[in-house]
Amino acid sequence: MSKRSILLRAKQSPLVMGILNVTPDSFSDGGDFFLPEKALKQGLNMVTEGADIIDVGGESTRPDASPVSVQQELDRVLPVIQALHAESSVTISIDTSKPEVMRAAVAAGAGLINDVRALQMSGTVQTAAEADVPVCLMHMQGQPDTMQKQPHYENVLEEVKSFLLQRIACCEAAGIKRDHIIVDPGFGFGKSLKHNLSIMKHVHEICAIGLPVLVGVSRKSMIGDVLNVSAKERLAGSLALASLAVWQGCSILRAHDVRATVDAVKMMAAVIRSQ
């Protein structure tokens, strides 16, 4: 699949991005797919279940997560990307904020860069421009180790939207094509339950930017806060939020539970397309 075609498809119908955490400490599935052979099996399972994109991450960004070195991250993600690329035509996304990992992952077969820091780290904008693959720019207030310690906004929606517009402009100035850019409001990244619910209620205003919008709410703590359930008991809440996002125009749903999310997205898309 060409680097452009995945975004063309996102404009036509919502896509599902399967989450593949190759880490020992992610909030929901940390350690489940840490071994490369388990990660490959899970990735191929998600492709069978209908995933359009597989998002491979080697460093947890949950609150209070410990940072990992460049080499650690490379050792975790490259074998998985290479194996997935060899065995499937699915679009592979690299979930990283490090330019060295971006460069190596794209060389290994990744066709999308997903950065929770919106290409703000030194060298990342230039690396992404040179890689010439689509990028996802996410909003986060603070850093993973501090982001959930009393996040504050005067107007969360306007501040998130303003940040994304600034990052889009920065990327375009560096030579990244506008039609290569995806935006993500960053649910759960430096935001309280009130902030997350407000963004979800008005996420159509993020869609009004005119670029594909990625939403990552699968198993997030906002669901646990409302329903009082553990991370692995949040499927119903995840599907409800995914459906709300699709109804408002979001293009990519990042999910742990791929088959159920694909079904929910297809149903919402059918209703939206109906006369």
Protein described:
With 275 residues, this protein is of the alpha/beta class. The protein has a single domain (10-273), classed as Dihydropteroate synthase-like (TIM Barrel, Alpha-Beta Barrel), CATH 3.20.20.20. The protein has 11 helices and 8 strands. The protein has helices spanning 5-12, 36-48, 70-87, 99-108, 124-131, 156-173, 193-201, 204-207, 221-227, 235-247, 258-273, and strands at residues 15-21, 53-57, 91-95, 112-115, 135-138, 181-184, 214-216, 252-255. An 8-stranded parallel β-sheet has the order 6-5-4-3-2-1-8-7. Helix 3 links the parallel strand 2 (53-57) and strand 3 (91-95). Helix 2 packs across helix 3 (70-87) and helix 4 packs parallel to helix 5 (124-131). The radius of gyration is 17 Å and the shape is globular. The chain starts with a helix and ends with a helix.
Defining traits:
TIM Barrel; alpha/beta; globular; 8 strands; 275 residues; eight-stranded parallel beta sheet
In short:
The protein has 275 residues and is α/β, with parallel strands linked by helices. It has helices spanning 5-12, 36-48, 70-87, 99-108, 124-131, 156-173, 193-201, 204-207, 221-227, 235-247, 258-273, and strands at 15-21, 53-57, 91-95, 112-115, 135-138, 181-184, 214-216, 252-255. It has one domain: Dihydropteroate synthase-like (TIM Barrel), CATH 3.20.20.
Topology:
Elements: H1 5-12, E1 15-21, H2 36-48, E2 53-57, H3 70-87, E3 91-95, H4 99-108, E4 112-115, H5 124-131, E5 135-138, H6 156-173, E6 181-184, H7 193-201, H8 204-207, E7 214-216, H9 221-227, H10 235-247, E8 252-255, H11 258-273
Parallel strand pairs: 1-2, 1-8, 2-3, 3-4, 4-5, 5-6, 7-8
Helix pairs in contact: 2-3, 3-4, 4-5, 10-11
